[in-house]
Amino acid sequence: MKTNENNPEDWLRSAAVRLGSADHLYPLEGASESVIELLQEATERFLKAYLISKGWRLREIHDLGALIAEAVVFDVRFEEFSDFADELTDHFWAMHYPGGESDEIGP
After folding, report:
1. What is the DSSP letter of 30?
2. Can you tell me the distance from the alpha carbon of 7 to that of 41, in angstroms, rounded to the nearest whole number?
3. Which of 47, 64, 66, 76 lies at a CB distance of 3.0 to 4.6 Å from 89, suitable for a disulfide?
């Protein structure tokens, strides 16, 4: 299957796959490195799908807080997810590379 980075539906499909995997893995592992990474990637893809659907030009960015800030331009209701986005991004980077602090991950 050939995908298109400018097609929101391709981003949504990719996001749903990662979220489904996180949902299945969480009961077994809790907030493990894999679950955090899958959740971050799913959220990133959902946000990119939304932004692309609004005409946003795709950028290589993994900071959920920055993506939320972009989404707020189109719909202010995204603002309520700013803290979640920042926290998930922080946990993602802490676990993504050795040397990060990962002891304080909440549900």
Report:
1. S
2. 17
3. 64
Could you give the CA distance from residue 87 to residue 102 in angstroms, rounded to a whole number?
12
> For residue 95, what are its two tokens?
């676990």
6 touches 65 (CB < 8 A): no
Cβ(46)–Cβ(9) under 8 Å? Answer: no
The pLDDT tens digits for 52-93 are 999 999 999 999 999 999 999 999 999 999 999 999 999 888
- Alpha-carbon span 65 to 98, nearest angstrom: 22
The residue among 8, 28, 6 whose CA lies nearest residue 16 is: 8
C-beta of residue 22 within 8 angstroms of C-beta of residue 38: yes
